[in-house]
Amino acid sequence: MTEFTNDYRLIFPLWRSPFRGQTTESKFMLDWRQTKDPWIGNGFLDTYFVGELIWMGNGRDCQLEHEEMDFMQKNDATISQLAITESAFTCMLNNIAASEIGHYNLNEERLEQFFNVPGIKFDTTNFAKHIPLF
Q: What is the rounded distance in angstroms from the CA atom of residue 2 to the CA atom of residue 32?
């Protein structure tokens, strides 16, 4: 089974920067393990995994805290849920921030693309109107 699941690792294709005007890409891997037997109910399935989203360039190792959690009550509704602990989400965001897509480079052209506004001047005279430091 581990060979079929690539040792419980899922390699994502290149992720592009979510910021308009940025052309960076990064590759990530989801390293996951199932921690409890699945629970099958009337119209739903609960599965429990532990894992990390790791940047494949120079990923950050994380210390995942043991945080007990459960899904919301289903009542009569059939809903889909994804529950992530705080330490796992912090690890994920730290890996994204450390990667190429976590950094952005601004110039006039990229600012225009980012804000979707033509004619932005990237100089201290223009910023002085908005930021009193200049």
A: 11
Give me the amino acid identity at 123. Answer: D
**What angle is formed at CA 56 by the lines to CA 81 and CA 96, rounded to 5 degrees?**
55
Q: Cβ atoms within 10 A of the Cβ of 31, count? A: 14
66 near 35, Cβ under 8 Å?
Answer: no
The CA radius of gyration of the chain, in Å to the nearest whole number, is 21
Q: What is the pLDDT of residues 2-61, one digit of tens each?
A: 666 667 778 887 788 888 888 888 888 888 777 778 878 777 777 777 777 888 877 667
Task: Report how far residue 49's alpha carbon sits from residue 33's, in angstroms, rounded to the nearest whole number.
Answer: 5
Residue 35 DSSP SS3: strand
Q: How many CB atoms lie within 10 A of CB 42?
A: 7
